[in-house]
Design a protein that fits this description.
The complex is a heterodimer. Helices cover 38% and strands 31% of the residues of chain A. By secondary structure, chain A is an alpha+beta fold. In chain A, strands 1, 2, 3, 4, 5, 6 and 7 form a 7-stranded antiparallel β-sheet that branches. By secondary structure, chain B is of the alpha+beta class. In chain B, helix 2 packs antiparallel against helix 3. The longest helix of chain B has 18 residues. Chain B has a 6-stranded antiparallel β-sheet, with helices on both faces. Chain B has one domain. The chains are: A alpha+beta, B alpha+beta. Strand 4 of chain A pairs antiparallel with strand 1 of chain B, so a sheet runs across the interface.
């Protein structure tokens, strides 16, 4: 018999499972890489109820990662298999991302590596970062993550925990450092 | 599943915090004309400003108060990195002559350097901040960095170095 806590957990998780925006984004990204095939994959959503359950069961683990789940209102995650090769340099920004820009999101990052492309967007309301969305297209997987809430403290915690990696090129860094 | 969720939240927040951007419109890259010098989109585009910059400053306050203090003088950090293979005809000449354009707007050339690995140009403005342009022939890339704000060149240089995470060669 399913234990009550597990039943509540499953119910809470299933309660937030619709991710139509991510599906549309997946379709738009698929159109940006016609040489590869992006499969159906899976998606899951954690709404306010699910997050309450997650806070109950995973707060300590999250805090160890620098995350304070009290500030996270909802999370949607989707992952899709990618088959076939593509050239990241030739992947243009998908229509879905341009659409979000028109709706007030800011594209914070477009980064092309040897075998991947990543977009990071966020939306803010005055001084509050309310949404963060990452789309990471890699050789074998497309991952979409949308986090919403009051994210400044979450971001502060993660930066404090993990530090700030390099943003600038080597030459710029060295010269600005006076080396 | 919860572990997976935590991992994804952490990944999203790390990526956003390190790489995130400013309010659209109010805080945008001043050197957007460089987009016309290259075919296609930049290899890397980064915009840090507004509440994200504040979050990074706050996160650094305990470990590196000087860095946090410098960040408070800065209103934005913007980076564009292109492959030189994307450069259109005449692009490098226009990049090298960028100093003349900036000087007309009150910028000063702080460093102009050329060596076997490429060229570096650093421009400063007392109110508007610092622009660093590098042409790296070894890595085959051109990088444009704008640190917007009223910090001193020394502060902005330290900030640039801190964000760069150290020299790899």
């Amino acid at each position: 018999m399913l234990r009550p806590a597990a039943a509540v957990l499953c119910g809470a998780i299933l309660a937030g499972c619709a991710s139509p925006g991510l599906t549309r984004m997946r379709n738009d990204i698929a159109r940006s890489v016609p040489e590869a095939s992006i499969g159906e994959g899976w998606s899951m959503g954690f709404g306010p109820l699910s997050m309450a359950v997650a806070r109950r069961f995973a707060s300590d683990e999250a805090m160890a990662e620098g995350l304070d789940l009290r500030d996270v209102r909802a999370v949607r995650v989707a992952s899709y298999p990618v088959r076939g090769s593509f050239d990241p340099a030739r992947v243009s920004t998908p229509a879905a991302i341009r659409r979000l820009e028109r709706r007030g999101w800011t594209v914070a990052v477009r980064a092309r590596e040897a075998d991947s492309v990543t977009w990071v967007l966020y939306r803010h309301r005055e001084d509050r970062i309310t949404d963060l969305l990452t789309a990471s297209l890699e050789a074998e997987e497309l991952t979409l993550v949308h986090v919403s809430g009051a994210l400044e403290r979450v971001i502060r915690g993660v930066v404090a925990q993990h530090g700030i990696p390099g943003l600038l090129g080597n030459r710029a860094t060295a010269m600005a450092d006076g080396e | 599943m919860i572990y997976t969720m935590n991992r994804h939240i952490a990944a999203a927040c790390i990526a956003g915090a390190m790489l995130a951007a400013a309010p659209a419109g109010a805080q945008t890259f001043s050197l957007s004309f460089v987009d016309d010098l290259f075919d296609g989109e930049p290899v890397t585009e980064v915009n840090i400003a507004g509440p994200m910059l504040n979050a990074v400053a706050d996160a650094s306050r305990d470990d590196d108060p000087e860095f946090a203090e410098t960040l408070e003088e800065v209103t934005g950090v913007f980076v564009r990195e292109y492959s030189l293979r994307q450069a259109r005809s005449g692009a490098l000449d226009r990049i090298r002559s960028l100093g003349r354009t900036l000087q007309r707007d009150g910028w000063q050339t702080m460093i102009r350097s050329r060596d076997e690995d490429g060229e570096t140009f650093i421009y400063t403005h007392p109110q508007r901040g610092m622009v660093v342009v590098t042409i790296d022939t070894e890595e085959d890339e051109a990088t444009f960095v704008e640190i917007r704000g009223a910090g001193t060149p020394a502060q902005l240089g330290r900030l640039s170095g801190r964000l760069g995470g150290g020299r790899n060669r």
